[in-house]
Amino acid sequence: MKQLGFVLIFTLMTGLLNAQELMGFSEANSAKQLDWEKQFDVQLNAKNQDEWMQFLSSHPHHVGSPQDKTNAEYIANLFRSWGYQTEIASYFPLFPTPKTRLLELEGSKPFKAKLEEPTLKEDKTSGQKAEQLPTYNAYSADGDVTAELVFVNRGIPADYDELERMGVDVKGKIVIAKYGGSWRGIKPKVAYEHGAIGCLIYSDPADDGYAQGDVYPQGPFRPAQGAQRGSVMDMPVYPGDPLTPNVGATKDAKRLDRKDAVTIMKIPVLPISYEDALPFLQSLQGQVVPQSWRGALPITYHVGPSKDKVHLKLEFNWDQKQLYDVIARMPGSEVPDEWVIRGNHHDGWVNGAADPLSGLVAELEEARVVGELAKKGFRPRRTIIYCAWDGEEPALLGSTEWAEDHQKELTEKTVAYINSDGNGRGFIGASGSHTLETFFNEIADNVIDPETGASIKQRRYARTIVQAEPSNRSKLLEDKNIKLGALGSGSDYSPFLQHLGIASMNLGFGGEDPGGEYHSIYDSYDLFKRFKDSGFVYGVVLSKTAGRVVMRLANADVLPFDFKTFYKTLSDYVTEVKTLLDNTRTETDVQNKMIKEKLFDIAKDPKKISRSPQLKEDVPYLNFSDLDNSLVNLKAAAEEFKKMYKDGLQLPVAKQNELNDLLYKAERSLLDPNGLPRRPWYKHEIYAPGYYTGYGVKTLPGIREAIEQRNWKEAQQSTQILAKTIDSYSQQVQQAIDVVKKNGEKRSF
Amino acid sequence: MKQLGFVLIFTLMTGLLNAQELMGFSEANSAKQLDWEKQFDVQLNAKNQDEWMQFLSSHPHHVGSPQDKTNAEYIANLFRSWGYQTEIASYFPLFPTPKTRLLELEGSKPFKAKLEEPTLKEDKTSGQKAEQLPTYNAYSADGDVTAELVFVNRGIPADYDELERMGVDVKGKIVIAKYGGSWRGIKPKVAYEHGAIGCLIYSDPADDGYAQGDVYPQGPFRPAQGAQRGSVMDMPVYPGDPLTPNVGATKDAKRLDRKDAVTIMKIPVLPISYEDALPFLQSLQGQVVPQSWRGALPITYHVGPSKDKVHLKLEFNWDQKQLYDVIARMPGSEVPDEWVIRGNHHDGWVNGAADPLSGLVAELEEARVVGELAKKGFRPRRTIIYCAWDGEEPALLGSTEWAEDHQKELTEKTVAYINSDGNGRGFIGASGSHTLETFFNEIADNVIDPETGASIKQRRYARTIVQAEPSNRSKLLEDKNIKLGALGSGSDYSPFLQHLGIASMNLGFGGEDPGGEYHSIYDSYDLFKRFKDSGFVYGVVLSKTAGRVVMRLANADVLPFDFKTFYKTLSDYVTEVKTLLDNTRTETDVQNKMIKEKLFDIAKDPKKISRSPQLKEDVPYLNFSDLDNSLVNLKAAAEEFKKMYKDGLQLPVAKQNELNDLLYKAERSLLDPNGLPRRPWYKHEIYAPGYYTGYGVKTLPGIREAIEQRNWKEAQQSTQILAKTIDSYSQQVQQAIDVVKKNGEKRSF
Description:
Two copies of one chain form a homodimer. Chain A is α/β, with parallel strands linked by helices. A seven-stranded mixed beta sheet of chain A has the order 1-12-14-13-15-17-16, sandwiched between helices. Chain A has a four-stranded antiparallel beta sheet with strand order 3-2-11-5, with helices on one face. A four-stranded parallel beta sheet of chain A has the order 6-7-8-10. In chain A, β13 (335-345), α8 (353-375) and β14 (382-389) form a beta-alpha-beta unit. Chain A is globular. The termini of chain A are far apart. Chains A and B meet through α1, α13, α14, α18 and α19 of A and α1, α13, α14, α18 and α19 of B.
């Protein structure tokens, strides 16, 4: 009890400290802001979130469905009723839907896959069969293929290396891969690169089914016939409409021919349930899979090829569909041309309660109360724009097309983009531009977890320590701050951050909201209420958290960017890629030595096929001097700016505006106008989704992926590009210093 | 090709070097010894091993079975026919066999476990139902209990800590544990310590079934109804007849009352198949198990308790049975009172083809050819004793009772004990006293793997590197020597090494002989021939390897003990226990800090039971100075002896005998006459089976287990005892130095 008392007092003290000095606010404005936030908190109402989710999830609401449009209009009307200038922005991307889906096993024990998620009496929307999109992977190719089957584990490049060692080739075969271990689109892409002619992706119960917990409807986990829909477009090359890269898919935009759209998958791909997968896996012969490849089905997993052939036939309607992005503005009272954008998508694969509505209703409630406060005199200095995106599920369509359509204005005006995409019970998850880390930690200190009474920051810190390996805990105890994750892809921040260089964040709670409903008909209101966030308690906490981010960014005197945190993180990334290069060199040396000593040949089982690896080219040393020097300069600038940051609060308003303009545009200077190698749409030099991981981020992607691909020349070039990028970023920080300094000199005269 | 050529030349060169200098042999005697070994190799015949295995495995041959006696007589006759002085030594231990076995699930869906391994047409001995011992755990208690069931993972102490955190108590319950993760006897022992009244142990298919590979008869892995018999006697306290600790179980030995025998389990215990286990696991309710506890059955694993009660009834015949140890001697020509003992057990749980006959037939073929060579003039200097033990499976009965019965003579005369226990395709596995490591590496250099042409040492080295984490390979490449494993328990070396202080080794090939036949009716000749070592090729390699160990030990001029390797290993162990203490201290400090900061309370899911750990006593610093000083002295003595080792070859025979006596008795000085805390039968200060791991070794057991049990006083006392033990060992080495030195002085005069 004594201890808990201490924690409470500490929390109160932290609160008091914040009351005096809110980052980016003068003392007077801090007090006002905190007062508004107090009012904000008390008005947030979980019941609204519940009601909106009920309505919005009452029917399937995927792109092109009647409910998709209905929902957009419903949302737009809500925004309007709260006083926002609201419009629905429409775009017209290619969005294929299935016409034929056939999967069968030939041979003596023929089997035809059901490809159907059953209606459950415990789930009232699960029977809306006529309205549901069937289980499929969007942007799969049309195809009618018959071939032997090969099991490729997760279907990532390393798995094919292992198959090669086992003497198994997928050329001319159909592959079956487990979901997980990469974004799903990587699996058919890599399969195609290796010569496969078709791809099945299934949810293994080890990852997503009974091994995780009781299955629906008894528990929230994926039942035997549940399957995961999802896009397989090659989004690591570019997201959005495959026919209109770089420009908005307006009605009359110039479009590529479908055959020239590189992001459409080249082979047919189909997601299946573990019940459907079982007979196919049982037909596999050949070697037993490596231990780490095993799933939780009650069989011996073999790599294949299969005894019998598999027939996969897929045909799609390659239609253009209309998107409905809802855009709601509250113009800024002082600097209306500085925009704080907040977004969450509204389209789902089916009824989409958890994904995306749980996040969307938190955004709506946040927007409602901001509207209420505005009526009572809260006038944000900057413009706030609330967005509800359409078409996120197929390919971040709504956000990407809008961002491409408005890129010039967005580049000029946007201070930051704050995203969410689903929410549930548990711990704050926060990723984003590391310039916002200090700012976000201040907010996480101020928001209280509703079930424990600790701050959301304390709670996440506690879990990080408790879940860590005992040997790592000591080090972790030294830093109570939340370290922001780096953004890869998988939601609507991508076009803002990685294409336009707008500082972005992605926020959401989770970790105590288990489930296997993802992209299935069971992602329903009924499941959500039972297992995810019954009372929308964490919905309200997300409103509190994201609302503070939006309101403080919109009202700050000096925008709360901290270049020192960014420097530290960047410096860690540089250390990482250097270590990666060194480790690659050591491992190459060791492996080459092992090959020369014939160790692989001597160690292998002579009765099994087990090909020894080939000698690899030695790993050269790269010249990191320019990069190291650029970091030295950035460090100096970042530290100097941090020291004088508070002086900015004393600047006259015009100077503050000049300063703020420099601050939020700093992120733009992290773009390389030429973009990343082989995917020029991605221009951010620090954060990108992995070319071979998809959602998973690759920080310093130019250097890191070149090293991973053993392209030393490109790694060196990317190092030089990054050094220049950092130099221009440091110059931007230097300009901000100069603005504060000049005024400081004036003041001291 | 060039590289392989190099390997061959290198092998030849190594051969030549050895030809000149075989450890412990003068140049002339080296050449003779190598010549005998050449003759030995060519006479080894795989077909004999095949024939003997066929006969010996033709019927179940457990303790007390007709075939057990038949086999002993058959083996004795073979030894006699090869010229050995052969006797059958009989002992009369307690050996319970089942009378009643009943296991059922009560409630609305009642289920009665089959407890029966089905006959397979592909396995011709699997149908010998009348002769088979049913599936059971020997030395389980009688019992008739009905209670709720709780799943305890592996059933080791750490699992109960986890259960306590989940708020689950096993008091008055029956527990179900997975095989693996500890020796089986630990599971009911720990369950009993926690208040459980019954224990089921099942083979989960994740560890031992379809997840490992195709099941029998398609592949060699454990089928759905296969179960693992085995002893649950508390052998970490003492092995052998529970009624006659420390003395031979002769007909008229003084016996304990059964109720006073501490090694008999206190609760009923039954092993079951995964098919039998499934309904019991499905009846479990409560929390879902931690991820690492999951098995491969197609269910969600829960910790329990079960919805319905479980009824377990076991009754045993508590009979005395006769053991038949076969002891075959070839008296030494020069020092007949120095004995080299080689053993492998002959009893099986059922037909026991792999376990133990695959090792036994290799020993027999080795003995046969040694006998042949003797007829041709090979007269080993020392006495060779070949043993075929009975009753190893229940509790190392045959070896323990014989060793206890003859302890005085064995202590005086035994140079070393060389054990094997099963053998198959693959890599040499070698554990034992580290004084023999250098000697064994020389042998491993000389024996060629039959499938790759590399030496067995090269092959094992190659696999060690290939299987290592890439980051560990560089270090491992630095040392091509085989590091002997330390001996815990699980086979017949225990009484020799750990009770009598006789330098011991355990040898066997494996790693390319997968299977799940262990202790089941499917451990048959049919399975062995298909999956284990079809042509008995590795049986012959074991004969070659162990034969060399025996013949070189029997013939060496100066016994090939290397105290420097022992010192190095011992020094590593001391570093390990110091590190263990330091890590325990750090982890305690960190965890106490976490408890004081309430991190466990804040991190946990408020809707789940999850008890936070309690504050632990701080870990003191211990005084290691005496131990460190004893190591300094040992190092000096070991290095000095190593330098002058070859001088020993120049000593007159009488002096050599004096030296050899000191050398082989050095291991005796590693015994503490008082034995280990709470288990005085185990007297070796360096190697012991773990009190809570069973088979798994605990090196420096006194110190290590005291630290693990947080008994700091005992840890300090054990440190002092070890220091004294090492001092007396160093004195023994010093005496050996003195013997060589004195003579050296004479020679130089």
